[in-house]
Amino acid sequence: MLELYYFDNSICSERPRMTLAEKGVTDWVPHHVHLFKGEQFDPAYLKLNPKAQVPTLVHDGEVIRESSLICEYLDNLYPEPSLTPDSPVETAHMREWIKEADEAGFEGVAALTFIIVFRAKLLAMPEAERDAYWAGQTVLERTQRQKSCVLEGFSSPYALRAIATWERIFERIENTIAANGPWLMGDQFTLADLDLATFIARLDGLALLGPWLADRPNAKEWWSRIKSRPSYAEAEVGPSGEESETMNTEGMKVLGDFEEKRAEYIAQYGSK
Question: What is the topology classification, in CATH, of domain 2-77?
Fold first, then answer.
């Protein structure tokens, strides 16, 4: 039996759902873990995922954590159509893309999401309630990032790091597609495209994608191809419903601040 524990609007939860959709697998058991209700801290779930994170995959009693590892596991479990290149060298290059998305890319999107969507909500909380929220976190690095983003907004060093990271990633996508497209690994759609897609969908939902794609036609066409894949719609990638409206509205409110910070970065460091 294949069971997936996930949260609907979690970026990382979208990745295995999109992988399953690419494989045409439908006989999996969904378990919704509502992060905003604190269900990730339920003792039963913590036994599966001590970090209180989603997603978590359970296959015949075996537990697999971390979204990129889950996607790779599913790609091996259901080998057709393959989402991994045949060449060991190309596979290593694919994993380089995924590593960058998992590390710097994730931190950047998380920082921008917190600044745009959650900052005002947390600042409006009574201090004791906000302190209780921080105390409930289980990963020190994540707590430090969230606190900085809430207290400092776009003045947070995490905001600058986010802009620098995604400036670099989008420039790399632009150059890679121009040289080798239509996909990041050439003719084959792989886990590299899939993993990055879920992060970029969040940036799109936050109304931040336009400036990054404005002067990058190849990256823009690549993104259109991603969104046209049936798996993108089937996995419901990107913010949806009320959350989508909230993210877009809040993103538009601070778009000027974002563009100002991005312009400062480009003036000092360039677009690469």
Answer: Glutaredoxin (3.40.30)
